[in-house]
Amino acid sequence: MSGGIDSTVTAVMLHEQGYEVVGITMKTWDYATSGGSKKETGCCSLDSINDARAVAVDLGFNHYILDIRNEFGNHVIDNFVEEYMAGRTPNPCVLCNTHIKWEALLKRADAMDCEFIATGHYAQVRAENDRYIISKGLDENKDQSYVLWGVSQDCLSRTMFPVGKYHKPDIKQMARDMGFHELANKNESYEICFVPDNNYRGFLKRKDEGLEERVKGGNFIDKNGKVLGKHEGYPFYTIGQRKGLGIALGKPMFVTEIFPDTNTVMLGEEAELDRNAMTVGKLNMHKYPSIDSKMPAITKVRYKHSGESSIIEQTGDTLTVEFMTKVSAIAPGQSAVFYEGNDVIGGGIILKNYNIDANANFSDN
Q1: How far apart are CA 293 and CA 68, in angstroms?
Q2: Continuous segment of H or E residues that includes residue 79
Q3: Which of 131, 266, 335, 361 lies at a C-alpha separation of 20 to 30 Å from 240?
């Protein structure tokens, strides 16, 4: 229970359905250590914890705070820093769901003899052919299946997503009907919990006070290697970035590649961001244990990406994706998630993006 509307309605729905509900709020991060100056927001704030506890007290079920700050720091934050230092763009929410929240929650569930865990994610899960399959939430605008690709089969076998079968406006109306009027009007937080000001560059600088001095002064180059100017340090740029480059070249320019070994950032025009293939690793397959031959899929390369038609093929522990049309700003380090209709086939971490011959054969031959 994060203290937000979705997890609150989830708890109330299950309580009304006769389940014996136990509320867990996870404390993953101390807001004060993030360098933020505004009012606390999000799932780690004292206000949110108190909101979750108030619901539990009102409905008469137990509520506990689970302190996972050490695990969160060791896994999620360390990875976040390491990925930027490697010139990649991480997705900490995926990593947190995969390695922290589900596993930590299930450990506590086992200790309390709880059979299932439930969250307020807009997704659905079902059992089919000895597999547990995640599918999109009914509300496509709120669907969160993308960030759940890493959750294991064992975890999914005990997972419930009660709000996944509803649209967000329906959940808000349910909250009002339940008497949670303030909650229904509460602003939602979309920031990374440990970067509440959305300034990841500032976070990296605070984590490593000497970083800025060590990396500043590298070269911006074009695709031909021509030096265009100096930048502030390669970790402070992401693939597809246009604003905040600090350089004027008379036309819109975008970050197209990052070379950490030489502290070099390549810039190009928007068309130079287009790629029609990528390699994906650290796979977690859901609908099928593996992809034995080429198959069509809709592939998403970031959370808000609508997805593109593609052909996927698995070779060992990596998977290649060939897109039917070029995709802009594919960023190594981000998650790629593969869909068959509304079902998640699986997902992984983007290792490399590239272009293949425009006349390449996308058939199964």
Answers
A1: 40
A2: helix 78-85
A3: 361
| Annotated catalytic residue 96 | yes
**What is the pTM for the complete model shown?**
0.91
Residue 359: inside a domain: no
- The number of domains in the chain is 3
**pLDDT tens digit string along 73-109?**
878 899 999 999 999 999 998 988 888 889 888 988 9
Residue 126 lies inside a defined structural domain of this protein = yes
Structural element, H or E, at residue 276: strand 274-285
How far from 4 is each of 56, 78, 84, 181, 195, CA to CA, in Å? 13, 27, 30, 12, 19
CA 41, CA 71: separation in Å to the nearest integer? 21
Task: Tell me: do 171 and 238 sit in the same domain.
Answer: no
Within 185-329, residue ranges assigned H as helices are 200-207, 211-215
Place of tokens 């390669």: 234
User: Does any domain span residue 363?
Assistant: no
Q: Which residues contact 161 (CB under 8 A, 6 or more apart)?
A: 118, 119, 121, 122, 123, 124, 125, 137
Owning domain of residue 234: 215-268
Element (H, E) at 24: strand 23-27
Residue 102 inside a domain? The answer is yes
pLDDT digits (tens, 9 = 90+) for 194-228: 887 788 999 999 988 899 999 999 999 999 999 99
Report yes or no: 127 and 148 within 8 Å, Cβ to Cβ: no
Q: What are the structure tokens assigned to 41, written together?
A: 């927001």
* Mean pLDDT, residues 355-359 taken together: 75
Are residue 124 and residue 223 in the same domain, yes or no? no
- Owner of token pair 């911006």: 220
134 and 248 part of one domain: no
Please say if 155 is a catalytic residue: no
**Domain end residue (candidates: 240, 268, 296):** 268
Query: 244 and 290 in one domain?
Result: no
Give the domain CATH number at 254.
2.30.30
In the set 93, 96, 114, 155, the catalytic residue is 96
Active-site annotation holder among 44, 93, 114, 193: 193
